[in-house]
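Report of the visiting student (M.T.), summer placement. My assignment was to run the structure pipeline on a short list of targets and document each run. The first record concerns Putative 3-methyladenine DNA glycosylase.
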Amino acid sequence: MRSAQPKIDHAHALRSDFFAGDPVAVARALIGAVLVRVLKDGVILAARIVETEGYDCPRDPSCHVIARLPGAAGAMGGEPGRVYFHFAYRQPLLNVVCRPTGIQASILIRAVQPLLGEERMRELRPVRRSLDLSNGPAKLVTALGLTGELGGQPIDSPSFYIVPGQTQPDSAVEITSRVGLRRGADLPWRFLMRGNPWVSPGTPSAGTTEAGLNGL
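After the run finished, the structure tokens were exported:
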């Protein structure tokens, strides 16, 4: 039986209060949710979130670095539910601010599975294999046509928003340490949809956790 397609109209967009809590819990809850991008010519792109990471500066040793990356400084600690892009190797990566204003916390969306508008995504990011369209945090930014003007905007804006998807049980979600970190490397704050081919090829900083032994 095919799973029901999510309702992607703006009326169902997640609002800012969804992001006001613990970013680790938010990152887990977003697995299976759907990113929706409405391009300037009216074309709608939609993709299922299959990989996320949480960053929570009050208890996260990596945050003294993360919060100072280009694009993150001044954005983390802002209003919850705001979009920002931080740059790694000059590539923009998609984040959403979490927790109340004044507390530095966010989630990073690392990979998505195309659902609608794949042909247009291929125009934005020409690739040979569909899997390479959006199986990484920089790739998805290009494939979805995400631009700097979205930075600082609420995640429920008419041109870019997230709608709930099919709820994923714990058995369908792997948990690992995050990718590419030296500090906070052992924190199990990366979530991915088990067995989904669009998950990024990134290697966990400290291997898989007990909850995700059948990992990457």
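Residues 20 and 100 are 6 Å apart (CA to CA). The two ends are 27 Å apart (CA to CA). I thank the supervising group for their guidance throughout the placement.
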